[in-house]
Amino acid sequence: MAQLPDLSALALLCAIAEHGSVSRAAASIGMAQPNASRTLRRLEADLGFRLLDRGPRGSTLTEEGAMVADWSSDVVAAARTLQTAALALRESQQSHLTVAASKTVAEAFLPRWLAALRAERPQLELHLAAQNSEEVQDAVESGSADLGFVESPSVRRELRSTEVARDRLVVIVAPQHPWARRRRPLTDAELARTPLVVREPGSGTRTTLESALAHLDPVAPTLELDSNAAVRISVASGAGPAVLSELAVADAARAGGLVVVPTETEFARRMRAVWLPGSVHDAAELLIGIARRTCVTHVRPV
Fold first, then answer.
1. Is 59 helix (H, G, I), strand (E, B) or coil?
2. pLDDT under 50 in the chain at which residues?
3. What is the pLDDT, as a whole number, of residue 301?
4. CB–CB of 186/262 below 8 Å?
């Protein structure tokens, strides 16, 4: 024998021994009669001897067939135990979901997405980690997160991804900054020459901005911070201009604490869900669907 016998064939053989006929045995394990006949012939070919005496009144096990059926009973029982245990393990794993999200996604999108998920799966145990986009991809790649949401321009080749939302970056300043009264759109060159308050390396916001201005050799930042809130506070305090998601600054801009400066270039970007190939959690699939349905695109502050 070049390979191990097919478990479904062994299960069928055990059912024949129990029920006394191929048709009743096939019905008991949910197999169609033609498939049962083919399965038995294939098993006989693999084993190298007949398992059934076939006659006009039906088929009965040969002596060898009865012996193989007896030997197979423990194998089939063990396989069913494995199947039951694996199903229980899967159900245990599916009862909780760990999500890692970039800080902008965590602030602007996830509360609504997770509320919708909770409404559909009230028993689901949810865990959320707000990180920058590089850290999110690390968490998904290592298996410590079932699903991630990133805002970086690219996704690692080891991960699968799909777009779930869109956003744009805007230049913000304090109301007293000279740019706050500016009417002429800011050029990329002017932005590149200006020391900015920026997010930390690995942030999708930082990576998107650096990619957009890379050809202009931007000057070094004036301040580097690890959250949108810290950047907003620093800008409002007069530390200098910054570039953040319009979703992250909309409330502050409406309240007058920050001013959005017009730019010649629209720094659009995509928010993506990321996961490991072949490991999509069913609740993760549901959350991705919710994100797509409730996608907010280009919400402009007023």
1. strand
2. 296-302
3. 39
4. yes
